[in-house]
Design a protein that fits this description.
The protein has 110 residues and is an alpha+beta fold. It contains three helices and four strands. Helices cover 43% and strands 22% of the residues. It has a four-stranded antiparallel β-sheet, covered by helices on one side. InterPro entries: Ribbon_hlx_hlx, TTHA1013/TTHA0281-like, Uncharacterised_HicB. It comes from Endozoicomonas gorgoniicola. This is Type II toxin-antitoxin system HicB family antitoxin.
Length: 110
């Protein structure tokens, strides 16, 4: 997956072979914010402009902007998974939170 980051927002990016452009949308919010560009530089500029404009319009209209994910994650797992994860974290010399963050980051390729 191709992603871009700006001001805490992340965008998914795809290539539209029919129109020969890169197309992106903000991820992690319910509002629909899209942008496109025919080059990487153009795409990056359009992404930053889209984020900045989204925030400006929200402030101007008094509608709160949707923020990307907070970084707080609550998981429900079986006691066996919890124990195995805690043991794996301890074996690595890390807290369960540090270990889980590293594992999730590696799994999601961020």
């Amino acid at each position: 997956m191709n992603m871009m980051k700006h001001r805490g927002y992340i965008a998914r990016v795809e290539y539209d072979s029919e129109d020969r452009i890169f197309v992106g949308h903000l991820a992690g919010i319910n509002d629909i914010v899209g942008f496109h560009g025919s080059s990487v530089d153009g795409l990056e500029a359009a992404f930053k402009e889209a984020v900045n404009e989204y925030i400006a319009i929200s402030e101007k209209t008094g509608r709160p902007v949707q923020r990307p994910y907070s970084g707080n994650l609550m998981l429900r797992v079986t006691p066996e998974v919890h124990a195995a994860a805690a043991t794996a974290a301890e074996a690595k010399g890390k807290s369960l939170n540090q270990w889980a963050s590293e594992v999730l980051g590696n799994a999601s390729q961020i």
